[in-house]
Write a structure and sequence with these properties.
Distance between the termini: 16 Å
Helix content: 40-55%
Strand content: 15-25%
Largest sheet: 5 strands, parallel
Order of helices and strands: EHEEHEHHEHEHEHEEHEHHEHEH
Radius of gyration: 20 Å
């Protein structure tokens, strides 16, 4: 196996499958620290029940789905309160847009044909596709996965839409001691790369840095010395939104592929 990470220090900000990533890094000669920035996830079931009931009553002009898992969860909740078919009827009456291939697969399994798809798997690509449609006086339901999508929401609101956000999952902020330790490790140049596996990890880190008035130091560290690594396009988009252009993204959006790509990059 390649030893492209020889004497390199990595940080992984994930909370899942971290042992696998640590093992991969160590097999290639590197050291890997785990600094979870995801926080705890819980299901906002009662709130979703009320929102589904309301949507069944009033309907919507548009439904925009951003994760297949989120769509599946909404349907499970609707089924639990015996409203699944009525909820699906509302989907079929409306225009539907989506982001991501997993979301498309979930919609296809329901026999729902979207009118809009992102062109590159990102929120930016989805917004670009939506620009061709009028949203004035339209009720638009946006399914999210526990974190906000301000770029999408702000576009719809500027376009005159009434936006209803469905967040079936909620994220509790990560441990502040871990966030502080990670911030110091990056800004002091104590690591060579930081691997992010979700956009939320990026957002949590930069949100904490802003609270501590160290956002500029954090950006500078990534620009000048610490490599930002993203598991896929959506995570990379979140990093880029913070003003960082040097981002390593693997061709295949998998954690293992991310570590291999990092090893190859460091071995140049």
């Amino acid at each position: 196996m390649s030893r492209g990470l020889e004497e390199k220090r990595m940080i992984v900000t994930a909370s899942r499958k971290t042992e696998e990533m640590v093992t991969l890094v160590e097999k290639q000669g590197g050291a890997c620290l785990v600094r979870p920035m995801q926080g705890t996830v819980f299901l906002a079931e009662k709130e979703m029940e009320l929102q589904i009931q309301r949507l069944v009553e009033v309907g919507a002009d548009w439904f925009i789905f951003t994760t297949g898992m989120g769509l599946d969860t909404l349907l499970q909740i609707a089924e639990k309160i015996e409203m699944k078919e009525r909820f699906l009827d509302r989907l079929r009456e409306a225009k539907v847009a989506y982001r991501g291939y997993k979301t498309y697969a979930a919609l296809k399994s329901l026999g729902i044909t979207p009118v809009i798809a992102d062109n590159d798997g990102t929120t930016r690509g989805l917004v670009k596709a939506l620009e061709a449609y009028p949203f004035g006086q339209q009720r638009v339901v946006v399914q999210l996965h526990g974190d906000a999508a301000p770029q999408l929401t702000e576009f719809l609101q500027r376009s005159g839409a009434e936006v209803i956000e469905l967040l079936p999952y909620r994220h509790i902020a990560p441990d502040q001691e871990i966030a502080e330790k990670l911030l110091q490790e990056i800004t002091q140049g104590l690591v060579d790369a930081v691997c992010f596996t979700t956009a939320l990890q990026v957002q949590n880190l930069f949100s904490y840095a802003r609270e501590k008035n160290k956002q500029l130091e954090l950006v500078q560290a990534f620009v000048e010395q610490v490599l930002a690594v993203a598991v896929g396009k959506i995570t990379a988009e979140a990093i880029e939104a913070e003003g960082i252009e040097r981002i390593l993204v693997p061709e295949h959006e998998r954690m293992g592929a991310m570590i291999i790509a990092l090893s190859q990059y460091m071995d140049k």
